[in-house]
Design a protein that fits this description.
The chain has twelve helices and 23 strands. It is an alpha+beta fold. The strands form five sheets. Strands 5, 6, 7, 8, 9, 10, 11, 14 and 17 form a nine-stranded antiparallel β-sheet that branches. A five-stranded mixed β-sheet has the order 19-20-21-23-22, sandwiched between helices. The structure holds manganese (II) ion.
């Protein structure tokens, strides 16, 4: 399964907007993508200064991601957590479309987007970075932003997670870490790379399970790492164990600028690509960014809360909370205390979570008005509020103690208290007849 096969499917459904005007990857494309966030896939056919076409907003809606994984909104969590529990090793292919061309690196020929006014430079944002431990026993695939430094160097942001761990292991032996940076991927690969199965589980194997065993990999030509056989473009590189450069400012999922840091430099040593490769862009802070980062966390929360309360209906890392900091969780409450137990499990499952609301299963967590309605009518701050000061949290929140990574967490239990009669919380309902339903239908149609 490839980016192209998915694009063809979307094309048939009329979900791809082709842009034939010549447009620059310097700010211009980012403006258009921002305008159509949550809208169609954007296909830039003519890119100023480049021969390459650019696709963006591929995973901009929940519906498109579900269609890529052949699942429904309600089953998405289960699909994601099941794939993490049952990873399936992909086959290795000898030949692949991505091996059409191999050439010396020249990053200036790739239409990498410059997104925001104060960004440090053009950033690659939709790449899956894969690496193996020096002994070859552990493989990891994750998504990282990469700042273009020059023709053959990037700076990579390494958050202290799995790739950082592999890099630290290599660094101890004074060795560079070899990486395959793959761009132009099927959503399942990006989503798997954005998820966090335990260290030692390859996210390629998670992606392969999501794709029912159809993912194939190829071995890179110059380095010891693997890339999806059907990727559009693969940059083969080495993360230096000693050379660092300044990384940032860069706009992250919150839509604010992340701070400058010294980060490791990647030397690109070889490029593999399809002859007419399509470059995949992702606008930071867009719905696509929120969904790709947030969905695997929703699945993790769903899984964790399911273990402590009888039934979880849905989890939404809401748009207003940057798809990262705020969760609304609906449960079927059985005993008093279920709401608070669910909150504690959610905070444990997603350490960046800052504010969480638990509601009953009659509330639609994807509708902020309904969630607020539940808080208005089913919540008492003196009883139902949890505040945890100085807990570990996201470093992206400017109101937090970013240096120490500490924040305050707030949990709101907006489930119905069981000691108050259920009918007090009942949403009033007007009895209807077929006649009235037909009349309303007619009025709707005739209304100007
Ligand atoms: Mn990992």
């Amino acid at each position: 399964m490839s980016l192209r096969s998915f694009l063809n499917k979307l094309e048939k459904k009329g979900e791809v907007l082709h842009i034939h005007e010549r447009i620059s990857p310097r700010f211009e494309m980012a403006s258009v993508i921002q305008e159509f966030s949550e809208g169609p896939v954007l296909f830039f056919e003519r890119v100023e200064g480049y021969d390459t076409r650019v696709v963006a907003n591929l995973c901009g809606t929940r519906g498109r991601i579900c269609s890529a994984l052949k699942t429904s909104r309600n089953e998405l969590y289960m699909r994601l957590s099941e794939a993490q529990r049952n990873p399936l090793k992909p086959e290795i292919a000898e030949e692949a479309p991505v091996m059409d061309v191999h050439e010396k690196p020249d990053l200036s020929r790739i239409p990498v987007l410059l997104h925001f006014e104060k960004d440090a430079g053009p950033y690659i944002t939709a790449a899956a970075v894969s690496a193996r431990s020096l002994d070859g026993k552990v493989e990891n695939v994750s998504v990282h932003r990469l700042l273009v430094l020059d023709r053959n160097h990037l700076v990579i942001r390494l958050v202290p997670r799995h790739l950082f761990r592999l890099w630290s292991m290599a660094k101890k032996k004074r060795k560079d870490l070899e990486v395959a940076i793959s761009i132009g991927l099927h959503p399942a690969v990006l989503l798997a790379a954005a998820s966090s199965p335990p260290f030692g589980v390859s996210e390629y194997a998670v992606a392969n399970r999501l794709l029912d065993g159809s993912l194939k990999l190829v071995k890179c030509m110059e380095i010891d790492a693997y890339a999806p056989a059907e990727a559009e473009l693969v940059l083969e590189g080495r993360i230096s164990f000693e050379r660092e450069a300044e990384e940032g400012p860069f706009v992250d999922i919150t839509g604010t600028y992340d701070i400058r840091r010294m980060q490791p430099v990647v030397e690109i040593v070889n490029v593999m690509r399809r002859k007419d490769y399509i470059y995949q862009a992702l606008l930071p802070g867009s719905s696509e960014h929120r969904l790709l980062m947030g969905l695997p966390r929703e699945a993790a929360i769903y899984e964790a809360v399911s273990k402590v309360v009888p039934r979880v209906k849905a989890v939404n890392l809401s748009d207003g909370g940057c798809g990262w900091l705020h969760a609304a969780i609906s449960i079927e409450k059985q005993t008093e205390g279920d709401g608070k137990t669910a909150l504690l499990a959610a905070f444990a499952a997603h350490p960046s979570l800052k504010h969480a609301v638990v509601v009953d299963s009659d509330i639609d967590v994807f509708n902020p008005r309904e969630v607020e309605w539940a808080i208005a009518l089913r919540f008492q701050a003196s009883e139902d509020l949890i505040v945890v000061p100085n807990a570990r949290g996201s470093t992206l929140d400017p109101s937090a103690d970013q240096k120490r990574g500490l924040t305050s967490k707030m949990g709101i239990d907006a489930t119905r208290p069981l000691n108050i009669p259920r009918e007090n919380f009942e949403r009033a309902h007007i009895p209807s007849t077929q006649k009235v339903a037909e009349l309303i239908d007619k009025l709707r149609k005739t209304r100007l």
